[in-house]
Every structure is written in C-alpha cells, then in structure tokens.
Amino acid sequence: MNQANEPFTGNHAIANFIDCTIDMTSLSAAKVKQLIEELCRRYSLQLIGGFYHDFDDKGALTSVSALTESHIAIHTWPELSYVTLDVYLCDYSRDNRETTLNLLEELRKFFAPKAVYSKVIKR
Known about the structure:
Blueprint: E1 10-20, H1 29-42, E2 47-54, E3 61-67, E4 70-77, E5 82-90, H2 97-111, E6 113-122
Antiparallel strand pairs: 1-5, 1-6, 2-3, 3-4, 4-5
C-alpha cells in the first residue's frame, strides 16, 4: 500500500525509441532473446518463458518475455528506426523500482535511439 492506502504492486515503464542508431538489419529475435536472458541474469529476474518472432530478415521483430515479476515486451520497426517497449516489474518479493529503470536504460543503450519518450506508471 502507498501513503494514500492504495495498492501498489510495481512499476510499468513504457517507451518509444526514435531514430535508433543500432543497425537493425543485423537484429534478430534470437539476439533479442539473448539480450533479455542476459539482463534477467544480471538483475536476478526469473524468466519463465517467452515468444520471439522475426517478421523478416531486416530486423522487424516482436519479443514478449514472461517473468515471475511480470514481463518485458519489445517491438521493432526497422524501416522507421523505431522501437516500442514496455517493462513491468511487480514488487511482490522485493522492491523492483530501480531495476525497472535500469532495464529501460540497458535497452536504451542497446538500441541507441536519438530520442526517447518514456513514462513510468505506478501500478
């Protein structure tokens, strides 16, 4: 519960990455899966499954990773140099506020956008 006596279970970060400078033609769902697995190890998150799909051979993909803490979803549009994502981590067994922001930053570094539009929602 927060100070207003409302339930508070975690943070949900949503972001649009504009003009990504990563070479999206070299991206694949398999590479994004590897990235998510590494981030889960680094931040002690429990990956319980996922769906990673390439739409073509030019970096268009969708990725949804289910975590015991909730999920990470990534969608790319290489023709626009654009990525949308969301990271939702629940706080059931530990405070994941900082981890949510760290994951957003790690993904920003990976995709290297020139502009980021993001919002963190308390849930």
